[in-house]
Amino acid sequence: MLTLNSNDRDLITKFYELQPNEEQIRIAKQIWQTTFNILKTKEQEEILRKRIFLRRLPTTYDKMIDKSLGYIEPMLSNKALDIDRRAGLVTSYSKTITQYKLDLMTLNLDTIQNVIRGHQQILNDLQKKLSQSCHELMIQAIENRQKAMQNVMKYI
Questions:
Q1: Using CA atoms in the order 99, 101, 105, 110, what is the torsion angle rounded to 10 degrees?
Q2: pLDDT per residue over 122-143, tens digit each?
């Protein structure tokens, strides 16, 4: 998680020393917030990629899916099913559920990637506004804080 540190405070102070107007402050804050959102979402993406690799769904999803097995288990334990047929059905259910979990994680990953692209588009639009309303020193001060935020996330 990204936290405010002394370097971050110094970078913010340097920005305010350039005496930005209200519009410039608003744009800078939006750029920093969007940068934070991108970094946080990328962190979530990385966690999900690891979960997919390990084939481990978050526990909330696992519990939800496992609850759906509650009505299947009594059917499978019915004495009318012979042992071989029961084993085949258990295998089919197991494969279907495993595939569903993988599909769900893949869909979540796709959603996260779309969110990242959305944040990136917002950031691009804000940077266009920034270039129209700020001088080079102010743009550099804003970008310096962005870079510092990115560097902090590399070490987390």
A1: 50
A2: 999 999 999 999 899 999 999 9
Measure Cα distances from 59 to 30, 52, 56, 99 in Å: 34, 13, 8, 17
The confidence band for 3, taking pLDDT boundaries of 50, 70 and 90, is: low
Q: What is the pLDDT of residues 16-55, one digit of tens each?
A: 999 999 999 999 999 999 999 999 999 999 999 998 888 7
Instruction: Count Cβ atoms within 10 A of the Cβ of residue 134 and give its class: 0-12 exposed, 13-18 middle, 19 or more buried.
Output: buried
Burial label, 107 (beta-carbon count in 10 A; 0-12, 13-18, 19+): exposed
For residues 33 and 85, give the distance between their C-alpha atoms in angstroms, rounded to a whole number.
57
CB atoms within 10 A of CB 76: 14
Rg (CA), the chain: 25
pLDDT, residue 1, reads 40
Buried b (16+ CB within 10 A) or exposed e, 142-151: beebbebbee
- For residue 34, the surrounding DSSP H or E stretch is helix 22-54
Token pair 């870079």: residue: 147
